Automatic annotation (TrEMBL):
Any one Gene Ontology molecular-function term assigned to this protein's record: tubulin binding
Lineage: Eukaryota, Metazoa, Chordata, Craniata, Vertebrata
Keyword hit for NADP: no
GO process terms (BP): microtubule bundle formation; microtubule polymerization; positive regulation of protein polymerization; regulation of flagellated sperm motility
Organism of derivation: Ictidomys tridecemlineatus
Protein's name according to its UniProt entry: Tubulin polymerization promoting protein family member 2
UniProtKB keywords: Cytoplasm
Length: 169
């Protein structure tokens, strides 16, 4: 059975990485875990510390870390974050911060419909030729709402007697 810390590790490992099996974590998600779980506090542990520790524990040309390498990293960060505790106590404290945590999606960009956007997309306020491209409900008329529909009769635009070729004058 995976420990709480290992479960959290897996949840963060697969976050935003559809191909991840949850056994290895990349630097981006490692930083996210450190941030979301409060291990990175911006004082004792900064994003730079997190990056350095990540680089230190991963295999030489690997781009990800395994859970055991992750534990090594957490031991290091734990000692920075919880000064004065021995490595194992610090690791325990870090794992307690991680317990039951999910990758936060708060603060993730959502589509905005701030006043400005509403105003720009309200077809009832359109004027001039733009206005004619929408019906009363504000639904676009598509190609029919455009003036410049190509005339494929073969006559030059502006020719007055179009369609009179066969008629005798």
């Amino acid at each position: 059975m995976a420990s709480e810390a290992e479960k959290t590790f897996q949840r963060f490992a697969v976050f935003g990485e559809s191909s991840s099996s949850g056994t290895e974590m990349n630097n981006k998600n490692f930083s996210k875990l450190c941030k979301d779980c409060g291990i990175m506090d911006g004082k004792a542990v900064t994003s730079t510390d997190v990056d350095i520790v990540f680089s230190k524990v991963k295999a030489k040309n690997a781009r990800t870390i395994t859970f055991s390498e992750f534990q090594e990293a957490m031991k290091e960060l734990g000692q920075k974050r919880f000064k004065g505790k021995n490595p194992d106590e610090a690791l325990q404290a870090v794992f307690e911060l991680m317990e039951g945590k999910d990758p936060a999606t708060t603060g993730v960009t959502k589509a905005t419909t701030v006043g400005g956007v509403d105003r720009l997309t309200d077809t009832s306020k359109y004027t001039g030729t733009h206005k004619e491209r929408f019906d009363e409900s504000g639904k676009g008329k598509g190609i029919a709402g455009r003036e410049e529909v190509t005339d494929n009769t073969g006559y030059v635009s502006g020719y007055k007697d179009a369609g009179t070729y066969d008629k005798k004058k």
